[in-house]
Every structure is written in C-alpha cells, then in structure tokens.
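Quick one - inputs below.
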Amino acid sequence: MTYGYGPNTAGDRERMLGAVGLESIDGLFSDIPASVRATGLDLPAGLDELSLARRLETLAARNQVGLASFLGAGAYRHHIPATVDQILSRGEFYTAYTPYQPEISQGTLQTIYEYQSLICQLTGLDVVSASHYDGGAATAEAALMTIRQTKRERVLVSRAVHRHFVDTTRTYFQGGRLTLEELPTTAEGTTDLAALEQALADPDRPVAGVLIGQPNAFGILEPMAQAAQLAHAAGALFVAVVEPVSLAVLAAPGDYEADIAVGEGQPLGIGLQYGGPYLGLLAARSDLVRQVPGRLVGRTTDVDGRRAFVMTLRAREQDIRRDKAASNICTNQALCALASTVYIATLGPHGLRDVAAGGAAKAAELEGALAAFGVPRIHTGAYLNEFAVRVPDARRIHAALLERGILAGLPLADWYPDDEALKDALLVCATEVTTSDDIAKFASALREVAA
Amino acid sequence: MTYGYGPNTAGDRERMLGAVGLESIDGLFSDIPASVRATGLDLPAGLDELSLARRLETLAARNQVGLASFLGAGAYRHHIPATVDQILSRGEFYTAYTPYQPEISQGTLQTIYEYQSLICQLTGLDVVSASHYDGGAATAEAALMTIRQTKRERVLVSRAVHRHFVDTTRTYFQGGRLTLEELPTTAEGTTDLAALEQALADPDRPVAGVLIGQPNAFGILEPMAQAAQLAHAAGALFVAVVEPVSLAVLAAPGDYEADIAVGEGQPLGIGLQYGGPYLGLLAARSDLVRQVPGRLVGRTTDVDGRRAFVMTLRAREQDIRRDKAASNICTNQALCALASTVYIATLGPHGLRDVAAGGAAKAAELEGALAAFGVPRIHTGAYLNEFAVRVPDARRIHAALLERGILAGLPLADWYPDDEALKDALLVCATEVTTSDDIAKFASALREVAA
Amino acid sequence: MTATIERPEQETAQVPGPRQVVGPGLQPTLDELSRPGRATTKVPHAPADALERIPPDHRRAAPLGLPELNEPEVIRHFVNLSQLNYSVDTGFYPLGSCTMKYNPKINEWAARLPGFAALHPLAPDAVAQGTLELMWELEQWLAEISGMKAVTLQPAAGAHGELTGILMIRAYHMARGDHERTEVIVPDSSHGTNPATASMAGFRTVTVKSTSEGQVDLAALSAALGPHTAAVMLTNPSTLGLFERQIVELLDAVHAAGALAYMDGANMNAILGKFRPGAAGFDVMHFNTHKTFSTPHGGGGPGAGPVAVNEKLVPFLPWPRVFRDGDAYRLEKPGERPSSIGRVRSYQGSTGVLVRAYAYLLAHGGEGLVEVSEDAVLAANYLRHRLSDTFEMPFAQVSKHEFVASAARLKDETGVRMLDIAKRLIDKGFHPPTIYFPLTVEECMLVEPTETESVETLDAFADALIEVAREAHDDPELVKSAPHDSPVRRLDEATAARQPDLRWRAMSGRETPCPG
Amino acid sequence: MTATIERPEQETAQVPGPRQVVGPGLQPTLDELSRPGRATTKVPHAPADALERIPPDHRRAAPLGLPELNEPEVIRHFVNLSQLNYSVDTGFYPLGSCTMKYNPKINEWAARLPGFAALHPLAPDAVAQGTLELMWELEQWLAEISGMKAVTLQPAAGAHGELTGILMIRAYHMARGDHERTEVIVPDSSHGTNPATASMAGFRTVTVKSTSEGQVDLAALSAALGPHTAAVMLTNPSTLGLFERQIVELLDAVHAAGALAYMDGANMNAILGKFRPGAAGFDVMHFNTHKTFSTPHGGGGPGAGPVAVNEKLVPFLPWPRVFRDGDAYRLEKPGERPSSIGRVRSYQGSTGVLVRAYAYLLAHGGEGLVEVSEDAVLAANYLRHRLSDTFEMPFAQVSKHEFVASAARLKDETGVRMLDIAKRLIDKGFHPPTIYFPLTVEECMLVEPTETESVETLDAFADALIEVAREAHDDPELVKSAPHDSPVRRLDEATAARQPDLRWRAMSGRETPCPG
Ligand SMILES: Cc1ncc(COP(=O)(O)O)c(C=O)c1O
Ligand SMILES: Cc1ncc(COP(=O)(O)O)c(C=O)c1O
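Output:
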C-alpha cells in the first residue's frame, strides 16, 4: 500500500481483476500504444500524514503573516466570524458537486439562492450569477456581456479600475476583434468625465460598455451617477466595479442606474490566501438575465407542492449550448459564495455597516497620523478606507518598513510604471482590524526610515 | 444589546413581559429577598468577537509550545489525524446532551458503543464505562470498585503508579475509612513483589485491590502477571493502570488476568491542552459490570426490529439510585471518547502499532544519544518509550535546557521529593513525533549546559 | 451483585446496509465495516526491529483485533452517524436542568489555538504564562459572580465539583476537631448527584421534604439540622426552577447548627448578577461551565465544575492553586499549603473547556451576563404562560430559568403519560424537555428554554405541545406509539438491561499482517 | 434576447416551518427568519461620525435590507441546510467526468494554516517564500506528470485553463505571423466547455464525429484539418472513458496540418504515470485539481485548472510566472516577458486550492499516483462488468476510469428512461451517475466510481442498479415517479425557467436603526 485513501487490498484487486477477466493490472492499460506508454513518475516518495503535516507547517512558517499591514489594493483583511468556517468545513457542503440532482442538493441550491438574494440587496440589482472565478474574471465577463448585449465591440475602462481586472479583461478580449480603451483620471483621483464624454461621442466606434470602479483603484469615490448618465446617453451599458463591503455604506449600483455590477467578493468572509480562491461577483439588471454568464438558481416547487430550488435558465450554459454559450464557465466558486452568504448572514446589516464605517474611521486615523509626519495624500477626492500617499523614494521606504515588520501598502509604481505622478505613491488602506497601535508603529517607523 | 448570542430585541422583551403580565424585568426577580439581591457584576465590559479573538490570541501566544519536548509523564504528544477534528467539530456531536432520548441520539449512542468495543479490544476486558474524567479519577473509581466488590477497605498501590493518579485516589479515599498504602520499587524500577506479597499476607487487614502501572511512572515494564497472581491468591482484585497506546504492542490486561484496567485516554487522539479535558479509561471483567461506575451503552432493537443502541444498566447511576449509586458521576468525557474512537478507527491496528513501536524506536535512539553523552538510565528494567536518566544537578540542567528551547522531561524530584535516588533524575520520553533532529539538539545542548 | 454477560443472539435484528437516502440512515458498526488489510498511512512505519528489545512476555500475544478501515470509510461512518443526533446546532433542546444554550463558534476556534491546545500539562510555569493568566483571570471573575473569596478550576464536572466541595467541608470540620458531623442534608427535589456525592464523601444523606409551594421547608430543615450535620446542599434556584424565598432564614439555620452551606450552582443561568451566593452566606458552590457558560455538552461531556469558596474553606482548596506574583503567574508549589484536600484529578484542570468559558464570559462582560439571566428567566416565564392553560403549573411563584409543568390531569383524562408526550414532541421536530425529574411532581416535565432561543421558537414549541395535548384527547394511540418519524422508534430497553450487549464481538483471527 | 423577470406568485408553495425531525427538513429562507433589531456583535461599533467626511451623494440612501439574525439562528439554518445535501462524505457519488473522489481531511487542515490562509496576494516575495516554494514545486511535479516543459497555476478551473491554453495557441500562431487559423476542432463527444472556450477565444468550432467504437475518427479529423485549423482539443481518455488508441496518428495529423494539440486533462485520473501527454506530443493541457487531485468540489467550486505547456508555448504563458533563483523564489517582474498572453485573473492563482493539491501529490508520491490510476481504472472496469448483463455497453474496449452504459433497450422494453433510473437510485441511497452525457450515446449514463470506493460499495451500487432495472419491468410507475424518499421530489423546472424567481423579495422598509 503506498497511498492511504484507497480501500483496495491486494485481495480486493485480485478479486476484481478476476471478475473482469484480466491477469494483471497491465491488462487495463493495453489500450495505450506502447510507444507512448509511460512507466511511472519521477516524483518524491509519498509521505505519511505526520511527515506531510510537518512539511506543510514548514512551508507555511516561511510566509510572514504577522506584519502590521496596510496593504489592500483589492484584497482586504477583515475579521471573519467563526461561524463561517464552522459551516464551510461541513463535508455535506464542501464535498458535494454542482447541484445537478436537485432532490438531494437542496442545501447547496438554497444557499446559492440566498447568496443571489443577498448580493441583490447589496447591489440594488436583480440578477446575480452564482459566482465567477474572481473580480478580474467577473469584470472581463461583464465587459463581454456589454458587447453581446449591444452588439458593439468597444469598451471603455477607467485606468483607475483595479489593474488586474483591466489586465484580465484585456486578455479575455484577445479572442475577439474587441477594443478595450482606458480612460484617464484627474488630479482628484477620479475618472476624467470629459474624456469619457469625448470617447463616447465617436459615432464610428460606438461604445458597448463603460467600466468604472467604486471606490476606484486609488481608493477614491467616483462620480458614478454622472458617468452612468453619460454612458446611457450614448447607448452604452454602465458597469460598476465595486468593493462589496463598501456597499454597506455607499450608494448601490442600482441607485445610480448601473446596468451591471461586478467586483471581488473576497472581503465578504474569504481569507486572503495569496490570491484565491476568491469570488467573482456579477449582478445585473433583470432584463440582462439571458446575457448573464454562469449559474443561476431559481425557486420552484416539487410535485408535492413543496418549495424547492433548482438551477435554471440553463440554456445560457456551456453544457447545453456548447459554442453558443454565454461563457465557457463550468466549475465556479460555489463554496466561496457560501462563505460570503454565511458572512453576510452573520454580520447582518448593522455588522456590515460597522465593518465598512469602522474601516473608514481607521483610515481617517491613518491619514491623520501620516499627515502629521508630513506624508500627504496624493488625490483630493473623497475616499472610504484606502488612499494614496506620497513618500520620498517609495520603493526604498517600502522595503525599509518591511524590515521593521510593516507592510506599507502597495507602491503604485508597480501598477502604473509610466506615471510620474505615482512614482512615489504608496496605496495604503485600513479596515476594522487595523489597530491604533499599528498605525502609530507605521507613523513612527516612517519617521525613522525617512530620516 | 450587550451580548451577541441572544435573539431578543427590545420589542420581543416587551411582548413577552406583557404576556406574562409584568411591567419590567425586575418583576421576574422579585422572589429574591432584597437583602441578598445583587445589582450587577463588577466584570470587564463585554467584547465584540474581533476584540475577543485578539485577546485570546495574545494569551495563547504567551504559551511556548514550539519547544523540542521530551516531556511525557502521563500526557503524550502524538500525531492526531485530521479526521479526528473534522468529526469533533460537527455540531451534531458536540452540541448534543447525554443521549437520554435514544430515538434521536443514535449518533452518540452508537459511537459510545463503538468506543466500548474498541477499548475492550485494547484491554482484553469485556465491560468499558463510557468515560471518566481522566486517568486520575478513573484510578480512584477503580480503587473504590475493588472496595465495593470485596467489601474490604485496604488498597495497595505501587509507588510507581502515576503520582497524580495516586494523589487523586488518596483524595477520593478521604470520604471513607479507607486505607491506601504504597508499595516500594526495586532498582530495576519495578514494584517490589516481595513487599507486595508481605502486604497481602496480613490476615487482619485484607486487601481489596492492588494497583500497578504498565508501563509504570518510571516508564518501566512491570511483572503484571506475577503481581496479578499474588493479588488473586489473596482474594484481592488486580487493577492495571495502563497507557492505552502501549496496548497496541504490550500484553493486554486481559492476558495477565487483570480484573480492571484504567488509564489516561489522552494519548488516543486528544490534545495536550495543559491537562484536559482528557479521558478516564475504565474497563473491567464482565462479572464486575454492576460495580462499574458511569454510563454504559448497550445494543437492542426498536419496536420495528431495527438494531439500535441505548443507555443501559442505569440502576448503577446517581439519577436513579441517588445515595446508593456506584458513583456520583453524571457529566463525563463523551466527546473525548468520541475523539479516541475516531482516532483508533483511523489508525487501525497497523497504525496504532506503528505509533507504539515508532515511539519505542525513537526512545531507543534517545537512550543511545544520551548515553553517548554520559547520561545513563537509572533503572535497569525494560522500558517502552519513556525512561529516567541521571544528570548532574537535574533542576539546573532542566532550566538551562529550557532556555535553549528544550523541554527535558520531568525532574522526578517533583514527584518524589524525598527519594534520594531520584534527586537528579529526569524522566524523558519519545513518541512517533519525536525527531532525530530534536534528539541531536537535546544531546548536544546537554553537553553545553553540563559543561 | 455480579452478573455474567451472555452475548444475546441479536442476529435477528435488522442490521443496516449502506445508507438509504439523504438524511438519517442507520449505520453498520466499525467491525462490520472492517476488511482485513485495509489501512491508512498516518504515521511513519516503525522499524521492524523496534520491539526486539522488549522482553517477549511483555509483548502482546494475540492480534489487536481492531477494525481495519481506510480514511474515506471512517469519515463517512461518523458523518452519517452524526446526522442521527438531535443537537442544539440543529434544533430547540429545552432540557430542564441542562441549560442547552447555544455554543458560540469563536470559543471552539479559541480552544483549538495551538498555543492552548498543544501545551503540556507539566510544562514549567515559564512557558505556560498565557494559560496561567487565563486561569487566574477566570478565577477572579468566577469569584465575583459567586461572591466568594477564591475559586478552584480543577473539577471536571458539576458532580466532581460537589465532591470537591463536600471533601473541603469535611476537612474544615476535621481541622476544627469536629468529628461528629456525619450527615449531609439535601432537599427531596435535589439532583441525584447531591446524595451520591455525599455518599462518596463518606456522609449519610438526610432528605428533607419540600413544601407544597416547592420551597425547602424551613421547619423540616431546622428539625433535621444538628450536631451531626456537616453540610446542607441546596440548589438555588432549585430544580423546580424556583428561587428559595427564605434563603436568608435557611442559611441562618444551617450556620446556627454549625453546618456549612453548599450551593449546587447548576442553575446559575437564572441569577447572574442577581444573587451572589457567597455574599448571601453560602460557604461553597460549584459552577457547571457546560451549563451556565456555554461550553459544549459534547453528547455527555466534557464539562468543568469550578468550585468557589468563602474565606473559611480557602485553606482546603485542592492543590495546586494558580497565583499571580507581580506580572507573572505560577502554580502552587508542592507542600506550599498542607491543609489542602489534595488533588482531585490529574494536572490542573480541563483547560480546553476553561478557555471556552473564559471566552464566553469575556464576550458578555458584566452587563451581558446579567442580560443572559434576565432573558433566560423571561423565556421560561413566557413559555410557562403559553402552556398554563394546557398543563398544570404546580407552583404559583414566578419561575426562574426553567419551570415544572405536570400532565397528571391529561393522564387521568386520556391515559397518555408524560413519556408519550415527550416522544410525540420528537415527531414535531423538538427535543423533549427533561421528564420525571424532579421526583417530587407527578408526570412532570422540566422545561428550560435558555436565553438563546427566539420567541418564535418558543411559540412554535408551545404550539406543538398544545397540539400534542389535543392529540392525546383525539387520538391517544398516536401519541402513545410516538415517535413515528425518528431514525429509530421506541427501544426495547428491558432486553438491553436483561441481556446486556455492551460491545461488538471480538475481531481476533480476522487480522492480516501489517501491509507493506 | 431579453427577458423581464416577473415575480411569480408562489405563495401557494408549502413554505417550511421549523424543522420537522432529525434529518432533512426543508428550511425557511434568511429573509423569512429575519426579525428587525436582531444582530450579532462581531466587530466593534463604528464611531457615529465615521462617515461624516463622505459626501452625502456617495452614501447609501435606502436601508441595506439584509436579514437580521442572531448567531444561533445562522448556525442552525446552515447546518440544517447542509443535511439536505448528498456529498462524498456521506455516500457514493459516481458522477462521470467529475472524479468525485474522497477529499483528504489533512488537506483541509493545511489550507487553513494561518501562514497560507492569511498571506496577502500582493505581499512582497520576501515574505511569501513558503507559498512561492510550494507553487514552484507543484509546477515541477505537474510538469513531470504531464510530460511538459512548464506549468502555470493561475487558471481557476478547467474551463479557465482551456481558455488560457487556447489563447496561448492563438498567440503562438500570431507570433509566427500565421493569421489564418480561425478554427478549433473538437470531437462530438467533447465536453461543452471545449467548444465554448473556442468561441470565447474567437475561434469557430468544427466538430468531428466519433467512430462507432467511440474513438476519434482519424479520417474525419484529417479531412477537417487544414490551414485554418489553430488547434484540436482532445479529451484523452475521452468522455466515453476510452483511451484514444490512435493517439500517435491523431497527433501526427494535427501537427502535420500546422495545428497544435490541446489535451483536456479532466480525465487524468485514469492515466497518471501511464501516459504523459507532453511526452506523447500534446502541446498543451490542463489539469482539474478538483478532479484528479482531490481538491474539494465545494458544491460547484472552487477548483483550479493548472495548464502545462511544451517548449513552443512557454513564451506565451500567463504573467506572472514563479521562478526559483538559488534558494529564493520570486514572481516574474512586470515586463519581464512581453510575449506573455498577460493575466488571466487577479493575483497569482487559487493558492488555497493549490495547497490542497500539493498535499495530495506529496501524500501519494510517484508510486502512489500510479496506483491511484490503476485502482480507478480497475474499479470502473469491475463495475462495468457487474452491470454488463443489465445495461448495454456500447464500447467493447477496456474502459479507463469511467464507462458509458446505455439503457436504450430498457427504455424500449419498459418506457423507463435513464432519468427515471437515476432518480430511483436516489431512493436506494446513491448519487446517480452523470446522465445524457456524452451526447453521442442514447439513454446513457457515465459512471465514474473513483479509486477511493471499496469493492463492497461498488457491489452495493451495482446491486441497486440491477434492482432498479428489475423494478422498471415489474413496476415502471415506481421508477418513473422516483425519487420517493428524498427531501423533495421531482421539481417543476419548467416553471422555474418560465417565471424565473432568482431572489427573495426585497426587505427594505423592514429594517430598524442600528441597536445600541
Ligand atoms: C442540579 C444539578 N446538579 C448537579 C448536576 C451534575 O453536574 P454534572 O453533570 O456537571 O456533573 C446537574 C447536571 O445535570 C444538575 O442539573
Ligand atoms: C471533460 C471535461 N472537460 C472540461 C471540464 C471543465 O472543467 P471545470 O469544471 O473545472 O471548468 C469538465 C468538467 O466537468 C470535464 O468533465
């Protein structure tokens, strides 16, 4: 026996082989042409569980996760209530497949329906897909939706949408003859609406969709309502790229008439995990339902009249429509959607508001502490819980602070290498878990390293 | 709202108060005489979950658990397979009460029945109580059993039974006019059988039970069969105080005709936790069943003929028999018994043997490494995975090693302050989790600190 | 007094095959699942010669005969078994005297922090500062709640706390040279552990009757008290869910007789911040952390039973205590306090449970704990009100966190017993209350809703009970043959006791040599 | 193409009340459970003025309208819901093409280690060395298994891997100035994600028929190939559970046409260490860690779809790659490799999933993985043998890890369809196999037992299917109306699609101000 999860004993194998009329295991692989038949794998020897646990602990210990961190940039540290993992570690949820047999999958189906409902409440929209890979993929899918819906091929995206979301969308666009154009920003840190208006005005190159972040990649609040109006006036769809926790206190995409809202669901109860698995949020106006990629769960009844839930409108999906499907997505992020469902249910409206507003309060404290040390904000627009500051020689300072156990946010030059104005910018954030101690430590270390 | 687990809103309270015809909450406490009515509690303010988690993490971090540890002395580090916690964290198990309603408690009842069966297999005995508080309490209860069964009042216990078990038994004996006498040990590290024979010979003071540890508190293997014979010849019951993992490779209590076996079940998949909750094991010959304290689960059928399990022989228990009960035990260690059930089921006979024999192999390695540095064993008897060594100035060396991150076992002078021979003894152990690195570190640090 | 266990022939019982549908299916036992040669790989294989140095007569002769399974089967077995249980996490569990409140999930997380979970019980104080601090702080808090002077956290459960307390009382009298006190008095409504504890501690139990109002009869108690009385054990609020209105007089009488007063604190959930037993005159009490402070019941345990004592008993507290010296914490040293009754267990306490209790207390704080009791008492009185037209309420007094109701009239009218009502409640989706306890009220149930249940749940439960009462009139057989919808129906308990089958048959002989 | 969602009046549906008995009871929704003013205390209350600096027009106007619950209700809700699910942890789940193998519990533990779980995705390399090392090592192992040159771990699922692979193929042709390749060829048995991916990547899909033996038709493929062919996507073993015996010739034909060969590796569980696609000539492939390497399916995800490529495609791998420099590990720097297709997602990958895959591979090692495939294939052939008297086996060839069986004859004889058989299996305690896929076999089921199921389970499943076939003859209505014993019975899917109800009604207006 070389692995511990299989039940077969030598006797079982013999009995089964005998039943199928073979003399050896090799007979099962006689269909593989000899010229391409492999004879094993050059991999390390298998480990017992104790040895495996040791190796994994060693690796985990090589990551440093105890830093005083001000890094956000699309992935945020939050307190995840213990209820979330208690539910996520139930085998009935995490070892089930896609609920193809609704009679014995009502647990998954109802939680997806609840997820859809909760995200509807947050976004003010009416249709929510049962999840996408992450914020980047959701943004790309939304951009493709605007193209399918309008039958136009040009999409405008603010340069202050999360860099990775823009990059991912660009990659997804490689397949078509599609255009993705970036809109500039102003000194306020918001998308240049004049430039938007101009880009929308070109009659030869009609725009399918306009994508703007709220808060945007600089942490700044955008004039979403005006941007949406401009987009709509030009016959384009308006896509809000939102951070979901902020929706507890900010105007909902439905309020400013966004057609689609997308975003990264990680802040809703999902661990940072070096980038995934995360949760791509995608919500839309109800009349876009047939353009929505991915799974949808609907309410219905069974033959006895009991309320029940089922995957529905499946004719959008790849297994039914193949090359005509709205997307190729199959496996999605169902368990992450469950995490966010339990998270929202646990926090409730008041708790979620405390998370968002508490982060805003901490961020103001951070702004104050940094300003007191002569480190000013770069943009003049309003922010929620993340903002860019200017320090002399950002990369050096960032590295020096790291040595002192402080993760001083993101050097924005990583994302905007060609932007002189952001050369010495650090994007810093605070959430409800940021402590005043850490803020004080940050500020005083800044003084040291800047000296 | 000052606490987060109660559902009542102000409105709910009002409605409920109204229904019972009271105007204020105070009315509910009017039965408490004013002279003794309290007006609140002088305790810290309640914390939200995030703040609470921080406080607990801070405390946990003040314990040092990453030491190279050779400390056992009745509580042993083992690899606990991940299956154990996966099952233990299921609310259906840990948030249920004692299975008083068998129709909706078959999960708990069957697992207790399985537990009883597994411990029977390990001990070679036929009746196993569904758990006691810990090894100490189980030992005390076994001693009381011998008294009830024989109607004699004198119990002999080897001084090389775990100190805490002896002390606990002594405390339990305070209630009766009962005598607990300690038997001396030989240079081999085993109980002095000549002394035992002599103690048993006194016709005026007949002995109810003889308690000997296997392995004993020095880690040494005792001549259990001979001791049992002597006890039986004198009409006394023989109680084996065993370490359960060792039973995978050592003779079973049933083999050497022990009447009762007790022990600390912690090594069977239960974390160290600074001493508890642990698991008191108690197994007995079938004809002692009505003397067995604590819960028993038996197999039966329901009215439809389905196999089912139920608490049985309840007339031994306090809720039925009150002052005539076999013990006052009520709440026991059911969840710890479940842990050990999952642990044994996961490891199986081969895995459990690997744990026991693997520890023995590591201990031999440890013995060799220490001997090479001139640190000899004290006792000449055979040991399994724990033994005492002599170092010059044990307490100083123990402290100096601790500063180097090594937990050099237990200074036996803590347990035997009056024994000159053990003044400089360290009781050290190894298990399957002990690494050769740690052994090398121990040996070389010993050289340093002894220098 | 002895019985030989004959293996009954139960081969006719229907033994479950593989799981039937989603939901509760009966399961085979581990031995039935076992197949020779199956195994997992959890630890390294031991060297072949590992045991050669062990003398052969010490080695196990017969094969171990444990089940051989692989990991997926183990998980499936226990997950499926778990679904056969009713639990607080799945439903309302109003078991009187048990305080089945919600077990907060953060507490489970906390107890599993490696800093707590992996600490060796004999670790030197220097490396155990976190847990020692937690224990010390918890003791202070429990002292405040109890109004006592000092606390020991060692007892593993309430009954263990009782034994500890009564042994301290014994030591107290002995230390004063008062050797004649051989009796412990308990009320007739007391929990079985009280008299059982008295016996274990070597005392004779004297039982005093309660009044028709469900109160300890002061006159009867006074009559029973005397120079032989070592202690009186009172449960307050009592197991009838009633506060002892004459508590001051009762305690005066106890003390006047030279006895000490023990308070069984199982029902503290009713009176946090409302009544501090030590301040009122009790000498010693225990807590049940698994009741009042929400540490999980675990299907029967573990719990913890901290004991709080007043000044008089401090010298006798079990050894070792936890002390603070400046900023450092330490365990009491051997011999530091010779008057101690000694150890009541191995090591220092069920700290894994205590971490949870600590987290619970800190989550609530003083005000929160008071609200807990207020809400628990409110819930009980509300539910009592809802049921008062259907069942007899033998006591007029406002109840505390639980209340007794009786179905004696219903039984007279319909022949349906409380047991039947309880079983029928199972069909309605509820765990039955405690029944036939306390022993002093006919056909009684003891209902304890706790403060963590919503009023909707209380209403649904009341509706269900009222419906069962109606069914008892309309269709008594339906109720008498309940439950109908549970994984198994009523069990043959008589055969279980007459022909005890307490283990599956030995597996020896079925085993194969260790694979690979 | 648009549809307005009208809220259907479903008030007549039976809405569940409180849980009925132990076991699967339907549950109310969160909004139905909500009561204004209920809350938990999970984070500190935000200062009242926290939002004053936010311009009013940016602030949310309407109340949030989220459900208001307390913690016990949340837990009970989801625990009870979970019990309505069938899962690998509770039973046999032979869903073809999905590889529903056991998910080892140590892997769950590992992924939750704070060192992995709390690492920020933009953490500088210096503080992410553990995860980077894990990723690098995992890439090496997957390269060895695939016989390819390099691996990207970024794709979040198989379909995402397909898109990544096909975009790389596009980039490859483009880089060579070969702009005419606008088609992707897939066999008719291919999974829906293959053609859907081709479309997403801007290609036209060309479908080629399979032979009656279930093999890709070499002649048909050759005919379809040409200067417009960018890639051929083959699933090997195919979705029919068959190895492509002519794989060498097929690959030669693809390459001769100047196209690249993509292998859908969803079925790798059959051929670990038996067939290394890169070594055999495939240019690119994806893995599904949630199939082959046991990362949990999670009720539909997450998974991971690492993509392995040969030398030709290395320049086009998504950005950023993971590199080892001496003893240190690092992410590729911006601009380091301009030929990259760019990012296919945010950050570096679903590392929480990858930790589990890594643990799985390391637990097995090379030999263990080979045994996995051997046992998986053995189980499939054994089960196929057990069922071959009852159902038609359209393909004579030895199967790999799964097999197709058809109930066409049974349908002719009894009118019972495969759907009915599947539903009836639910009553017998099993999850049905995949049905009506692949599309090329009538009334088919695709059965994949996996290597983690015991032969007893396989036998019990075969017995159940044989019994259902008998029932189809004896009592067809019983089968056609199945399932009978599940939490709900057959659903009205038509109404669900015609009148989509995709959310509960808004809760606004029901909310109270934040309590305390
Ligand atoms: C009133 C009373 N006293 C004592 C006990 C015994 O406590 P434990 O079960 O923790 O030993 C109980 C437990 O049910 C009780 O209800
Ligand atoms: C053959 C085949 N290809 C591709 C996929 C898609 O993989 P994923 O669901 O991971 O996106 C599947 C999944 O079922 C599959 O079976």
